[in-house]
Amino acid sequence: MHSKNDFNIENYIKALSTYIPASSMVKLKKSYKAFTFTKHPKSTILENRQLNDSFCILICGTIRHYTIDSNTAEEQTLRFTLSGNLLCQYGTATEATEYLSCLSECTILSVSNTILAEIGEETNLRIYCQNIIKENLELEVALLRMPPEKRYIKLCKQYQNIFLTVPLKYIASFLGITPQALCRIRKRLLITP
After folding, report:
1. DSSP code string of 38-101
2. CA distance 184 to 33
């Protein structure tokens, strides 16, 4: 009997066939690994090296990317990865500045970068990944330039269901405001016609 995650993994493998030739799909199907992590917001789930050495897709769940300020020891949320999205970090393997934690039970599909390199440069997968990373970075830069209320509105448009899986304190951290300021913004927007 197959679980829901098995079905989701097969769907993502099929979706990747758009970017990878059929001859390479057999190798990909034999080499992927699926990892399941339980909800644990205070523990890191992947080391930087492991994530940088693999192509990873979050099959289900929500992951929070964060850093810890060395002076104040406060956590700052950098981004969220939601179900169906590419899971990536933007640092190098030697940097240990970004941490990941599960905000819900998560399943990650992982394929070694060496396997992807063997599949060949003729695939469109690399371009697909670069476009996703570019879109994520553009959103983060745009959010930095906006006042808090506009950041909140853009976040709501970009991630419509984020409030179902992410605690408000992490959303406030991502927006660069306090949880109290987030509550005031939400209340003000509910009252505004």
Report:
1. --BTTS--S-HHHHHTEEEEEEESEEEEEEE-TTT--EEEEEEEETTSEE--SS-TT----EEE
2. 44
Each residue's pLDDT tens digit, 139-175: 778 878 889 999 899 888 888 888 888 999 999 999 9
Burial 169-187 (b: 16+ CB within 10 A, else e): ebbbbbbebeeeebeebbe
How do residues 40-67 score in pLDDT, each as one tens digit? 656 666 555 556 677 788 888 888 888 8
Helices and strands, counts by H and E, the chain: 9, 7
For the chain, the C-alpha Rg in angstroms (whole number) is: 18
Q: Where are the alpha helices (DSSP H) in the chain?
A: 4-16, 22-31, 48-52, 113-119, 125-145, 148-158, 162-165, 168-175, 179-191
